[in-house]
Amino acid sequence: MKVLALAIDIDGTITHRDRSLSCRAVKALRKLRIPVILSTGNISCFARTAAKLIGVSDMVICENGGVVRFSYDGEDIVLGDKKKCVRAAKKLSEYFDLEFLDEEYRKSEVCIRRTFPAEEARKIIDGMGVKLLDSGYAYHIVDEKISKGFALKYMAKKIGIDVKNFLAIGDSENDIEMLEVAGIGVAVANADLKLKRIANIVVPGENGKGVEQALKLMGLI
Q1: Radius of gyration of the chain from its Cα atoms, rounded to whole angstroms
Q2: Is the pLDDT assigned to residue 97 strictly greater than 90?
């Protein structure tokens, strides 16, 4: 398989646990001569700013696949239904004291601080057309059809690159579908066990070191 593009998570993959950016990852990504799509659970303005700072292409997947953008000056394309997520959050608020994050900026999902048991919450909102994702930094209530993999297939089709020619790198359970749809999926060493189980490759390095190892292994740098 020839790698023609890269989809890569941000938090925990090209950042350290404290969310500081890995300079090692940045240096490696700047050597690439293929399109790079940053893929994150965070909001659009965060992802676009990160793309500029890192020095990769402006294409981003945001809100766990609920929002995509093809250029810095382009428009956000909303793929997820936030109304369903709000209804589910309202249901959860009957059981837990919720602390919402970036509420006014999120266009496709609801983001909540990790202060309650995820599995119990998933049972409560089962059948409401949504799912609860754990990014390792926050919980995300997402339209059930939405994932980073769904968004990657959408973007790949639009830019004319077969999704199977993508390399995908991540660390969390919200990266699972992205690694599954890509031609090759790589988990860094600090990745969630669920992600490691479905990854084609698990590199020995954590965070930015793992990213560098993956790109070298694929002959991209």
Answers
A1: 16
A2: yes
Task: For 158-196, write each residue's pLDDT tens digit.
Answer: 999 999 999 999 999 899 999 999 999 999 999 999 999
> SS3 for 172?
coil
Cβ atoms 51, 58 nearer than 8 A: yes
The domain limits of the chain are 5-78+146-217, 82-143
Q: Which residues contact 1 (CB under 8 A, 6 or more apart)?
A: 164, 165, 183, 184
pLDDT, tens digit, 9 for 90 and up, residues 19-65: 899 999 999 999 999 999 999 999 999 999 999 999 999 999 999 99
Beta strands in the chain (DSSP E): 5-9, 36-39, 60-62, 67-69, 77-78, 109-112, 130-134, 139-143, 166-170, 184-187, 201-202
Q: Which helix (H) or strand (E) holds 180?
A: helix 176-181
Contact 69, 89 (CB under 8 A): no
CATH class of the domain whose range is 82-143? alpha beta
3-state DSSP assignment of residue 51: helix
Average pLDDT along the chain: 96
Q: Whole-model pTM?
A: 0.93
184 touches 219 (CB < 8 A): no
- Choosing among 3.30.450.20, 3.30.1330.10, 3.40.50.1000, 3.90.940.20, the CATH entry for 5-78+146-217 is 3.40.50.1000
Report the DSSP beta bridge partners of residue 131.
142
Catalytic residues: 9
